[in-house]
Amino acid sequence: MYGPRKKVWWFAITSRIIIIFLQFVFNFLCSDHDADAFSSPRNPREKHSIFDNVITFLFEGLTRWDAQYLIHIAKYGYTYENTLAFFPLYPMTIRCIAMLVRIVFFVLNDHSVIVLTAIGINLIFFIKSAVILFDLSLNVLKDVSLAYKATILYCLNPASIFFSAAYSESMFAYLTFRSMLASVENNPYISLPLSLSTLVRSNGLTNLGFPVYNWVKSMMNTAVPNFVSEYKYYSSKWSIIFDFRHIYLSICQIVTVVLLSIVPFCLFQIYNYSKFCIPQANVTDLPPYIVHYSIENNLVLPGSIQLPWCDLAIPIAYSSVQERYWNVGFMRYYQIKQIPQFLLAFPILYIMLKFNIKFLKEHRRNLVNLSFFKTKEKNENTVKTFYPLSMFPFVIHSLFLTCFCIFIVHIQISTRLLASASPVMFWYCAFALSYKSKSSEFDELNNLHSKWKVFLLTQKKYSKSDIFILSYFLSYIVIGTFMFSNFLPWT
User: Fold this and answer.
1) What 8-state DSSP symbol labels residue 219?
2) Contact 81, 321 (CB under 8 A)
3) 176 near 420, Cβ under 8 Å?
4) CA-to-CA distance for 162 and 174, rounded, in angstroms?
5) For a disulfide at 193, which of 79, 132, 178, 212, Cβ 3.0-4.6 Å?
6) Could you write out the three-class secondary structure of 160-204?
7) Residue 142: left (phi > 0), alpha (psi -120 to 50), or beta?
8) Is 137 in contact with 153 (CB distance < 8 Å)?
9) CA distance 110 to 363
């Protein structure tokens, strides 16, 4: 028997096998585009066996674009200033696990082991992220069918190639969904996934909003009302101060969660400063081909020159590096030549804006009187709505990220950024699909007896919204995999 959660697990594996197979076919059939992009320098003395050639032949299509930076960091560390745009947890995890993999696959060279390890890590984290997303969706939406559909759509998401390539999307999605689930469940150990997510991608810092929201909700629902209602019974100011301890302890708790969550991020910034802002004499200890590549491509080595961001009041390298090497900034991407990139990102931005606005309009009364902080019991007599109010913090989070994509970052990365950082798109699409099965109908559709049958295969009729959503998801999987694996613009 295969329940929804187990079927999600199997489908996550199946979808990754399909993506890896597609990239191999496309990379084999078409020659690579000569892209003007960073390519990690290879050790000229590194041996290449027939087994290394097999690894290259099978998986080279998964090492394009930003994957080159992450592979480079995993192999050599932060040797150039532009590598500081990429956070350390994913490449350092590759590096550590690759040491063990090398013992088993001793016939492979370092590069092949790194590539194989990166793909394996993403496979594991993607499967785990799909299962966690199902648990999160079930917890928030309170509907097995919606949770099941949303997770299947996640497995087929339009940024799928980035979840299998040597990118940090799968790890970040897992840690993000884990943080969200821990927040919803009031897990006291939420700081662990939160802090780790800030070491994978910079937007991991936005995940701090979830525990803060739950803390404010708890304060407004319990601590503050109780304190106010009992105020008149206090005999002295000392008894008031004594009873205020509950609120004080609650404040200390949330401050501790926030501080513990940002400590790893701060430590990484300190590392960057010490490595690139303090003059070093060990630059010559770098391999000659690393130094030679920096000279050829005008890249900055650690401690070689004084960098502008080193003199800032808060010397954080990330935004300065993004601005210098990628021209990232407010409205900087609004150029005529970038129109194709805006068209590329249009579907996901349209979906996110349309449904976020629908949610906010539907719950506008709750927004005005702050009733989104109230518990379910206090709202059970309210008018029934299409979208559950429990989605509120997720909607605000996704709306912020959507605006960030529109105005700040390179617009084409919107698809993978939003797909890995928020479950909202998959929830909205699950609501929009016309297939309205209930959990009891899994037996009727014989779904419980097959790990391969999913709702997309058992659905008999498709509405216009179904066709739009499924066409968008499936076409971006195929086109994106083709473009990415051949070094064509799809980043």
Assistant:
1) I
2) yes
3) yes
4) 14
5) 178
6) HHHHHCCCCHHHHHHHHHHHHHHHHCCCCCCHHHHHHHCCCCHHH
7) left
8) no
9) 55
DSSP state of 91: H
* pLDDT higher than threshold 90 for residue 422: yes
- Closest C-alpha among 206, 203, 207 to residue 414: 203
Burial class of residue 61, CB neighbours in 10 A (0-12, 13-18, 19+) = buried
Rounded to a whole number, what is the largest CA-CA distance in the chain?
84
Q: Measure the CA–CA gap between 424 and 428, rounded to whole angstroms.
A: 6
Q: Residue 304 in contact with residue 275, Cβ under 8 Å?
A: no
Which tokens hold the place of 136?
Answer: 């999160």
Rounded to two decimals, the pTM is 0.92
428-466 pLDDT per residue, tens: 999 998 655 544 444 444 455 566 677 776 666 778 888
Contact 318, 202 (CB under 8 A): yes
Residue carrying structure tokens 């960091």: 73
For residue 482 the two structure tokens come to 């083709």
C-alpha–C-alpha distance, residues 12 and 369, integer Å? 41
Q: How far apart are the C-alpha atoms of 79 and 370, rounded to whole Å?
A: 50
Count of beta carbons in the 10 Å neighbourhood of residue 378:
11
pLDDT tens, 251-298?
888 899 999 999 999 999 999 999 999 876 555 578 999 999 999 999
Instruction: Tokens 């960030």: give the residue.
Output: 404
